[in-house]
Design a protein that fits this description.
The chain is mostly helical and 61 residues long. Helix content is 92%, strand content 0%.
C-alpha cells in the first residue's frame, strides 16, 4: 500500500509541475489571483477538488 501512495504522490508532483513548466507567466498570474480569494472560496475550491477526485477514483476503480 505504501508503494502505491508513493507512486500517486509522484504523479501529483508531475501533474502539478506541468503548468509552471509550460506556461510560467499564466501560472504566476493564476497564483496571484488565488491570493486575492477569500478563505471561504479557497475552501470551497478545495472541497470541490477533493469530491471530484474521490468521484473519479470511485468510477475508475
Amino acid at each position: 500500500m505504501w508503494q502505491e501512495i508513493g507512486i500517486a504522490l509522484c504523479f501529483v508532483l508531475v501533474l502539478e509541475g506541468i503548468l509552471p513548466f509550460l506556461y510560467p507567466r499564466g501560472w504566476r498570474g493564476a497564483a496571484v489571483q488565488l491570493t486575492q480569494l477569500s478563505d471561504r472560496n479557497l475552501r470551497l475550491m478545495g472541497l470541490a477538488s477533493m469530491l471530484l477526485g474521490t468521484a473519479l477514483l470511485y468510477l475508475l476503480h
